[in-house]
Amino acid sequence: MEKSLQDIENEVIDEFSMFDEWLDKYEYLIELGKSLKDYPETDKTDDYLIKGCQSRVWLNYKVEDGRIYFNADSDAIITKGIISLLIKIYSGRTPEEILSSDFSVVDRIGLKENLSPTRANGLVSMIAKIKETAAENI
Hints:
By secondary structure, the chain is mainly alpha-helical. 51% of the residues lie in helices and 12% in strands. The chain has a two-stranded antiparallel ribbon with strand order 1-2. Strand 1 (57-64) and strand 2 form a beta hairpin. Helix 1 runs antiparallel to helix 3. It is globular. The model has no long low-confidence stretch (mean pLDDT 95). This is SufE family protein. Residues 14-132 form the Fe-S metabolism associated domain. InterPro entries: Fe-S_metab-assoc_dom. Belongs to the SufE family.
């Protein structure tokens, strides 16, 4: 049976709780970023660029059977980890599931307060783009 959005969020919270130090959590984010599937160079255009991120983050998606599947890349390793974390949680969900999420998982793992202000702004921009994508595909 498919895991619920809540189950995935709880798994992410559990994974991050294994690390005591934020340095270890950053290492984990970097590893997550490395697990992203290849992003086509042809999609590294302004059309897919998320506005509001200091580093460059591209996000595209496809809709299959009413579910949104995201793919992304970034030119910064921590940022790539952050977007890969969001993809891990929200890719493969219906637009309704995404829009019903309060995205509190990022607060519950302490991500937002442990990022620099510019990265935190980028995180907010990534979440906004995921929500916007969901809203456009209802």
